[in-house]
Write a structure and sequence with these properties.
about 190 residues; binds adenosine-5'-triphosphate; 5-stranded parallel beta sheet; about 30% helix; alpha/beta; single chain
């Protein structure tokens, strides 16, 4: 499975943000999108998700594909615990024990029954990552998912994502070249 992004152009208030952006996304290799702040990385993810309309260009290969995302702002239900948050997006039933194991794999111990609003930013981010991995989608889009994690944790969580996302199209926005290297990703640079 591959997704072709061809000549995507997007203007905001007559200012071009994406200019004839072309790239191919493959399931064999994670794709990292890099580029300066304001170069349109989030906008491109939003276009892939159908949340923002491109002005011109086309995207091939998205038909009937299920997409899950880790947004910059996590988008979890704060009044629910992490396990319930994860179960909410899973199409197939996944048992509590399995989810607990996945949370433990990203260093989240003993938080499963806490309301998400009581977790730290880095903890919420990891819950959102596990949710995206377990959601049984074809495509995973992540917007700076490892931001705010300390070095050791970041290393572990990147390995978790690499291990668990095999066979899916994965696109990760990052500002960190080291992250892209550890992900063994194909790099695309957007310019502002
Ligand atoms: N809904 C919107 N209306 C108007 N302008 C917008 C809108 N969304 C984004 N922009 C502008 O488009 C440009 C690209 O924004 P975008 O968030 O895609 O950049 P980015 O590369 O993801 O930035 P960062 O690395 O800071 O997250 C910015 O100048 C931003 O202000």
């Amino acid at each position: 499975m591959s997704i072709l992004i061809k000549d995507i152009t997007k203007y905001y208030n007559k200012v071009p943000v994406l200019k004839a952006c072309t790239m191919q996304l493959n399931k064999e290799r994670i794709t990292c999108i890099m580029g300066p702040s304001g170069s349109g990385k989030t906008t491109l993810l939003r276009i892939l998700m159908g949340l923002t309309q491109a002005d011109s260009g086309l995207i091939e290969g998205l038909d009937k594909k299920r997409i899950t995302a880790v947004f910059q702002e996590d988008r979890l239900c704060g009044y629910l615990d992490s396990i319930t948050n994860i179960k909410l997006v899973c199409r197939k039933e996944i048992g509590t024990e399995r989810i607990q194991k996945e949370l433990e794999a990203v260093g989240l111990l003993d938080i499963q029954n806490k309301k998400v609003s009581l977790l730290s930013g880095g903890m919420k981010r990891r819950v959102a990552i596990v949710r995206a991995i377990l959601a049984d989608s074809d495509i995973i889009l992540m917007d700076e998912p490892f931001k705010g994690l300390d070095e050791q944790l970041r290393h572990e969580v990147i390995e978790y994502v690499k291990r668990k996302s095999k066979g899916k199209v994965v696109v990760i926005v990052t500002h960190d070249k080291k992250e892209a290297e550890q992900l063994e990703a194909e790099l695309f640079y957007l310019t502002s």
